[in-house]
């Protein structure tokens, strides 16, 4: 197994509107669609569609949304041996509203995702040990993600931790993380530094590095990415890569596409410089915003021009 993801699995309920509603306001939408989502599922499917072998550790409800989610994984050649069904809760759902500029607001009802436990991670220990990259987020109980990060780290497996949605975390998470990936909002929650430009992003990255991860990658949306070096590269140097200019339609799932692309490159093309991994992942994420939806914007075995 090249990439294993421990994380969330949701059904996306997406409404498109000219403008996002203000509190108390009702607006008319222009169209509606459903799709498979959840940060963990998105990241896993992105990596799978780029061509690596993947597995998912997740929990869904005993309902149609859960059955559809499992079938979607199978359709994308994702190993579902450890996507289990619970009767304790409904499958996770995400209500997403997207305006004409591609901006969104999202409400998540986690449901079955919050029943994924450290015991579920231990049940998949043999797959984790045999993986090249393990990816975790925070749309499942934090202690479950920490269990996966620790187990992977103890067995020499590269760990990517996407701290989304951000909550206060103990240093144990950072010490078990090779690559920490987060956005401006999440960085502010974890550091107390309002991130509004490249300079404040660098301040936040330095503060996060002090907590112990191998490196930090801070995404700035249209502002690009600020990151620290790793491995043989200069870990004391912070680099900014501007985002590629594209005609954005819908930004939903772009951050997950970035993480999934990183997992792909770090498992399949280990000879690449880390700066090139970050650059290529940013290009892939940018191009997903030119299409509507979340996983529907992830291309199958197709890379943007100039990438391999």
From TrEMBL:
User: What Pfam families does UniProt report for this protein, alphabetically?
Assistant: PfkB
Could you say which cofactors this protein requires?
Answer: Mg(2+)
**GO biological processes:** D-ribose catabolic process
Q: Which UniProt keywords apply?
A: ATP-binding, Carbohydrate metabolism, Cytoplasm, Kinase, Magnesium, Metal-binding, Nucleotide-binding, Nucleus, Potassium, Transferase
Where K(+) is bound, by residue? 250, 252, 288, 291, 293, 297
UniProt KW ATP-binding keyword: yes
Cofactor mode of binding and number, as noted: Requires a divalent cation, most likely magnesium in vivo, as an electrophilic catalyst to aid phosphoryl group transfer. It is the chelate of the metal and the nucleotide that is the actual substrate.
Reactions it catalyzes: D-ribose + ATP = D-ribose 5-phosphate + ADP + H(+)
Tell me the ranges covered by the Carbohydrate kinase PfkB domain, including all copies. Answer: 2-298
Q: What does this protein do?
A: Catalyzes the phosphorylation of ribose at O-5 in a reaction requiring ATP and magnesium. The resulting D-ribose-5-phosphate can then be used either for sythesis of nucleotides, histidine, and tryptophan, or as a component of the pentose phosphate pathway.
- PANTHER family in the record, alphabetically? RIBOKINASE, SUGAR KINASE
Into which family does the record put it?
Belongs to the carbohydrate kinase pfkB family. Belongs to the carbohydrate kinase PfkB family. Ribokinase subfamily.
Its recorded name reads Ribokinase
Q: What is the organism of origin for this protein?
A: Geodia barretti (Barrett's horny sponge)
The organism's lineage is: Eukaryota, Metazoa, Porifera, Demospongiae, Heteroscleromorpha
